[in-house]
Design brief:
Layout (H helix, E strand, L loop, with lengths): L28 H8 L1 H9 L33 H21 L10 H12 L3 H4 L10 E5 L5 E6 L13
Antiparallel strand pairs: 1-2
Amino acid sequence: QASGQAACPVVQDWRLNEPHYGGLTGLAKAETAALHGADQVKVWRRSYDIPPPEMAPDSPWSFTADPRYAGVNIPTTESLKTTLERVLPCWNEDIAPLLKKGETLLVAAHGNSLRAIVKLLFDVGEAEIVHVEIPTGNPLLIDLDGALKPISARYLDEGRAQPLPEAA
């Protein structure tokens, strides 16, 4: 309503979901740290290409019986790298074509899925992306050129802004 739009079309896509935390799914951060050590948990949560342990096939957290994922090959664990591999087709097939038409989009997704898009847009290196934080509930406005390269970027709530990679 604040945007002056009575109704906006909403498209949901599972590829923008949070990464699959595999065998850590269902565990609180403190519980996970107690089981595996805080340093190992940090590696799993923040590294680019080191995923948590795989989810057991008989886990009560398994997505295999969820009808929303019927016909989808859900991984048993994901890193940020494999999350980007999952998000990339959504970007290429659904988001980028609309942006190239000049449409303005609001992409609401989970933090790590958004980090994957930031990595893509800003061409952030694997070592640097682990330090990029996307604050929850603070929209990031990115202006893109015709080639979908960032011209500028800023958080709407500057008081909770996090450093961003330099716009191209």
